[in-house]
Amino acid sequence: MASTLSRINASAATLTKNRTEDSVTPISGMCVTCVDGCVGMCEIGKSAYRGHEVIYPQPFGVITTASEKVYPVDYSHINIMGTCVGALGVEADSDKAIFPAVNLEVHFGHDKGLKFKLPIMIPGIGSTNVAKNNWEGLAIGTALSGTGLTIGENVVGMDPQAVIKKGRIIDTVDLKRRVNLFKDHQIDGWGATIVQANVEDTRLGVQEYAIEKLGVEIVELKWGQGAKDIGGEVKVTDLKKAQLLYERGYVVLPNPTDPHVIEAFEKGSFKEFERHSRVGMVTEEGFAKRVEELRAAGAKYIFLKTGAYRPADLARAVLFSSKYNIDLLTVDGAGGGTGMSPWRMMNEWGVPTVELHSMLYQYAKRLADRGEHVPALALAGGFTFEDQMFKGLALGAPFVKLIGMARSPLAATMVGKTLGRTIDNNEVPVYVERFGNTKDEIFVTAADLRKELGNKEFEKLPTGAIGLYTYYERLAQGLRQLMCGSRKFSLDYMTRDDLACLTREASEITGLPYMKDVDKEKAIAILDETNGK
User: Fold this and answer.
1) DSSP H helical segments within 370-499, as ranges?
2) Dist. CA 306–CA 302, nearest whole Å
């Protein structure tokens, strides 16, 4: 193992590097020889002239970011167990137990009224530019896929066209657009859009507005995320907007109403303001009251999203979700984000994904064993492909129903959008051009979508939506293949027995068996029976 688990003083995320890249002191991340005369390429050097700006990944607004810390244990330390015997969920017949027969549908909620075609949820993309600029593709692609999309925090507060009177939202353009983009493309009630709220949103009455005016049925309380343990943050390049946000009660740095700050901004001394949200203060009394308020306002389903906080906070999330009949609890492990999370914080705080998800299972099982309500669970924290999805679903079985992903669906949407632009400009890259030069040739799902939607509707689709739909199609087929190999033809049949650990350390953390201990007694019994004993 490397002498350090973190890269300390240089990263593509902060656009920094060491002068002596091949010779770096592990404990500090500094060049072994720091030379007087260096212009400051490393994070220390850049901080000497750009200060607090270097706290955050760059360039803001066109990127998503994730930790590059190497954790001692991750999902790659777990392997999937297959079998050549039998089938669950379908007849054990080679002509019937084929992978396209695997059912990936999920039904959950207190009345089982929520239905997803695939066990996927985008657990919260909010007011950042990268989310707003790609929302059309995200919303439409999610709707076509029949999965879930959460409208994250601060969308209303960041909307310059929002109408706010006496501290409460009266009308909003951006939230309305985000909700309706999904609704207008939803098919037969599959999938869902969820409106999330932090401290600022709650004060503005965002969820009540969404329920009453936009017909939203699902709202989510937010305790945090895996990327950071403070409130949501963005950067603002427009002085008037910064002043508007300051007037709306946000923490804006530096103060955009200060004459000296205004003068410095206009001179170009700095180009961006920081907008920060407040941190929440969780109490059981406050939680219970808010749940009651939302139900009284007409919320049909209530979710809770929490992050990589200490184990006691995870226990609170599980207990409160149980006591107050929450429909879905999402637990997000450390270290990724779609917004302006502080880079060092993203790397160095919080409970890593495997540890957090393992504790979540233990806590949920403890309540279930007492006969208490356990809500549907969703896991998030760096999932990107079908093998990781399988592992998350099995690790938390039977409680985990969904896998939360944000960065990878956003990446698929951005790539789809970019390819659409190259098609329109007749500039398709060489490594893509070998598939063709049109949407129908490049996107492998185009024929199916055209058949399902009709030519007219298909032509209206943004290519970002096609990119997301196509990515999900890949995940679905890959997951079906893995489940077929384990002879599990429905998500209901997945168990922790479908997994084994490659290391003793992973086994100790997860409670899953070490690889050499799997089926030990069963194997001996088979051998003894073969020998006639």
Assistant:
1) 386-395, 407-424, 430-433, 439-442, 446-453, 455-460, 463-485
2) 14
DSSP line for 315-379:
HHHHHHHHHTT-SEEEEE-BSEESS---HHHHHHSS-BHHHHHHHHHHHHHHHHHTT----EEEE
The CA distances from residue 262 to 54, 238, 277, in Å, are 21, 11, 22
Residue keyed to tokens 């096609």:
466
pLDDT at 4 over 80: no
Give how far Cα 436 sits from Cα of 299, 413, 442, 444, Å.
Answer: 47, 19, 6, 11
% of the chain exceeding 70 in pLDDT: 99
**In 71-187, which residue ranges form alpha helices assigned H by DSSP?**
129-132, 135-145, 174-183
How far apart are the C-alpha atoms of 138 and 408, rounded to whole Å? 11
How far apart, in whole angstroms, are the C-alpha atoms of residue 468 and residue 244? Answer: 34
Residue 254, preceding bond cis, omega within 30 degrees?
yes
Residue bearing tokens 């508007």: 244
| Nearest-angstrom CA–CA distance, 7 and 14 | 12
Cis amide linkage into residue 59, ω under 30° from 0: yes
Give the pLDDT confidence of 10-63 residue by residue, as tens digits: 999 999 999 998 899 988 999 999 999 999 999 999 999 999 999 998 888 788
In angstroms, the CA 28 to CA 341 distance is: 22
Spatial neighbors of 436 by CB under 8 A, at least 6 apart, are 442
Q: How would you label 313-344 residue by residue, b for 16+ Cβ within 10 Å and e otherwise?
A: bbbbbbebbbebebbbbbbbbbbbbbbbbbbb
pLDDT in tens, 279-327: 889 999 999 999 999 999 999 999 999 999 999 999 999 999 999 999 9
Give the confidence band of 531 by pLDDT, cuts at 50, 70, 90: low
DSSP code of residue 85: S
The DSSP code for 123 is E
- Domains, the chain, ranges and CATH? 1-55 (no CATH), 111-230+281-406 (3.20.20.70), 233-276 (no CATH), 500-530 (no CATH)
Indicate whether 278 pLDDT > 50: yes
Please state whether beta strands 78-80 and 233-236 pair in parallel, antiparallel, or not at all (unpaired). unpaired
Q: Residue 295 has which token pair?
A: 């139900």
Neighbours of 503 (CB within 10 A): 14
